Amino acid sequence: MGSAIVKKSFNMIDAICNRTYIYNICWEDPAVDHQILKITPDDVIFRICSAGDIVLDYAIEGPSKIVVCDMNQHQLWLFELKICMLRDPKLTYEEWWGIWGSSDVSIALDVWKRMRHTMSAGGRQWWDGRIERVFRQGFVTTGSTGFFSKFLIPFIMYSVGFDFKEWAEKGFSHEYMQANHVIIERAAWYMRRLFPTFIAPFAGVPPNQIGPEFYTVEFYETILREIFMDPDFGSTNYFYRFYLDRGYKDQSCCPRTLQEEHFDALRKNASCFEWHHASVQATMERVKPHSFTKLVLLDHMDWMPNGMVHDEWIALQRATVPGAKILWRSAFTQMGDKTFFNNLDVNDLSPQWYSKDRVKMYPGTFLSYMPRDTFPFIDPEPSACQRASFARKVITTAKMILHPLTAGRVSAHGDKMSSFYASQAKGYDAVRENMLVARPDMISAFGPIRQGHTWLDIGGGTGRNVHFLRAQLDSFKTIIVLDICPELLEIGKESARQSFTLEQCKKIHWVCLDVNDPNVREELAKIAGNNINRGFDTITFSYSLSMIPEWEKALYSAKSLMSNQGRVLVADFDTYTESGNSFKDFMIRTWYKQDGVRIDAKSRDTILNTVFAGDNYTNTCMRMQKKLAGVQIPHYVTCCKKGTITTPDGFRRPSVPDLTKYAAASAIEEEKKEAA
To answer: Which residues contact 262 (CB under 8 A, 6 or more apart)?
Structure first.
């Protein structure tokens, strides 16, 4: 039932986009954008187009260039109409206001006849059959948001007893709304029932963005109170007055793009635009590398899966200068459900700016600077040596399933692992490719890879994770694959020889050692050729933590091995429920226990709230379920990283000074003094 509703909602949005534009005005506050971005004449800006009025607002500041894209061709034709009108040398301010402020059809037709030849062929053909109807019926009622405003807003206002004209006659009095606060409560009740299932597609909101809060009356009541109880609503909130007033009445409450004082700057800078009918990623791949200094991504990443977000940011990094400002919004206040965002030092601006945002559409406002160090590039395909024949897969799977019946009794953990994996080693990677499905999401959170990067893969076995990053192995100084099963390490070593260059193989060390060994720090420092205090930039547990008997001790050991910009990533099997106490949790726990795999909710809690607790760490957890042989299997990925800051020039540094270095330096100085 739920999937059917999701599909219908997406189908409705697609149907709208195939017919017309969704937005006749943008649903973000440009005043907030200006305060955050601080646009200068040297800036090259990228933004998703939407209705295009906010990038026109940006153009008033005179940036060097503005590039926009949109997947909805009709949004771009609306934007193109505005740009071509501004580029008309005969356009006057009175005509500009008459078209977009008053929706005067006669003025719109006069200007259209004068400049229609400057439109693209597709845009000209589309507007030829519509421009008279659009401005005769009123521009405010066009697009799917205009359709909503034309029919549903009057219905809701009538139903809740809201007389907008009376409020307007009283000068949008704050006291009036206080005295009639019951109107807001009633409107919230209607919005709760209409928005998630009916209004959302017309507003371009896909099901992915509709969280549980959208099904509560309190959510809508809070937003409506902040909008309509604002004492400055009548003088500044032209977004909602546009729909309630059926257009802009005068310049006292309208966008900067319609104010006469900015008209000359708008026309002067109308030549700075370039637009693409493409996705963000495709646009980034088309433009010249290192083009953009500021980017505004709106909220489109909310509905994208993590892999798509990751690929898009790879393209974004290619197209931007190091340290570029990137602003985006979200229907959510946290970004932890997508592991890629762990590669960024994300500044949550929501507490500072949401109260000042006049639209109140997006609870989440985020800013990041583009780091210089490259994002992990994930190659999902196994190397040729990691593939296996169908027969080999069947044999390996049978050995895995029958192991509890065929294995002898051993007590040592290392012997147990060898007993379990030795007979499966040759087909291990091929069989587990579809079982250990959270590994790519874990690697997605790997962190920007700097020159001389160091990586410790605990329980890395055959080194499958190394092959995910085969394109960037030259950037690493040291990779240590740590495991207590020599049979798997041998397979991994041979796979590396077949897949990587000799120089790359020299960087990879295959170490048979227990992470809980009391001398692990010293042993790994010798192997890596590092100062004992250097640590590792990335430490991973890929479906290995659940097989380590003293797993909490292993986490603390990993914590002690982190560099000053280090992070610990864990991907593993999860429980179905948050608490792990359901019958399904009991069943999966019992099934995996026979292979020595421990599944419980305590693992997540211990990682996030005990071992890596405190202000010095930023922790996230992504939970998901993927089908295996028709059964949904739960997985999780946690990322616990030391605090870092990306500076406006793209360099990354620890947010907290590493005092151990100062302590070591002081100890050396003391020794020198004593020796003297």
So the answer is: 60, 256
Q: CA of 137: how far to CAs of 22, 74, 142, 361, in Å?
A: 17, 18, 8, 27
Tell me the CA distances in angstroms from 302 to 50, 205, 209, 328, one per residue in order. 16, 10, 6, 10
φ and ψ of 649, to 5 deg? -100, 10
607 vs 279, 289, 502, 610, 643, CA distance in Å? 37, 39, 37, 6, 16
Q: Mean pLDDT across the chain, nearest whole number?
A: 89
pLDDT digits (tens, 9 = 90+) for 366-417: 999 999 999 999 998 887 766 666 666 566 555 555 555 555 554 544 444 4
Alpha carbon distance 466, 652 (integer Å): 24
Q: Is 479 exposed, middle or buried (0-12, 13-18, 19+ CB in 10 A)?
A: buried
Q: What is the mean pLDDT of residues 299-327?
A: 97
Q: β-strands 364-369, 347-348: how paired?
A: antiparallel
CA pair distance 340, 353, nearest whole angstrom: 24
**Which residues, 6 or more positions from 500, have their beta carbon under 8 angstroms from its beta carbon?**
470, 473, 508
**pLDDT at residue 416, rounded to an integer:** 47
Identify the pLDDT of residue 8: 46
- Judged by DSSP in three states, 656 sits in coil
Own/partner long-range contacts of 492-497 (Cβ < 8 Å, ≥24 apart): 492/460, 492/461, 492/462, 492/463, 492/464, 492/466, 493/463, 494/385, 495/383, 495/385, 495/386, 495/429, 495/462, 495/463, 495/467, 496/463, 496/466
Name the nearest CA neighbour of 638 among 675, 673, 609: 609
Give φ, ψ of 229 to 5 degrees: -95, 5
Q: What is the pLDDT of residue 220?
A: 93
| Whole-angstrom distance, CA of residue 637 vs CA of residue 249 | 53
Closest CA to 444 of 654, 638, 645: 638
pLDDT at 404: 55
Strands 617-628 and 631-642 come out as: antiparallel
Cα 328 to its chain centre, rounded Å, is 9
DSSP string spanning 309-369?
A: HHHHHHHHHHHEEEEEEEEEEESSS--TTSGGGGGS--EE-HHHHGGG-SS---SEEEEEE
- H or E, element range at 136: helix 131-137
Other Cβ atoms within 10 Å of 161 Cβ, number: 11
Looking at the predicted structure, is the pLDDT value of residue 467 above 90?
A: yes
CA 49/CA 242 separation, integer angstroms: 19
Q: Rounded to an integer, what distance in angstroms lies between the CA atom of residue 178 and that of residue 174?
A: 6
Structure tokens that stand for 6 in this block = 């999701």
pLDDT of residue 670: 59
Instruction: Please give the single-letter amino acid code of residue 300.
Output: H
**Global confidence as pTM:** 0.89
Distance between CA atoms of 561 and 563, rounded to whole angstroms?
Answer: 7
Rounded-to-integer distance, Cα 322 and Cα 511, Å: 37
Kindly state the percentage of the chain with pLDDT values over 90: 75
Res 419: pLDDT: 46
- Check residue 232 and report its DSSP letter: T
Strands 644-646 and 476-483: unpaired
State both tokens at 584.
Answer: 């399904």
pLDDT of residue 308: 96
Three-state DSSP at 406 gives helix
Asked if residue 144 lies in contact with residue 22, where contact means CB atoms within 8 angstroms, the answer is: yes
- The radius of gyration computed from the CA coordinates of the chain, to the nearest angstrom, equals 29
Which amino acid belongs to residue 343? N
From residue 638, alpha-carbon distances to 167, 464, 635 in Å are 51, 19, 10
The helix/strand/coil state of 47 is strand
224-277 pLDDT tens trace: 999 999 999 999 999 999 999 999 988 999 999 999 999 999 999 999 999 999
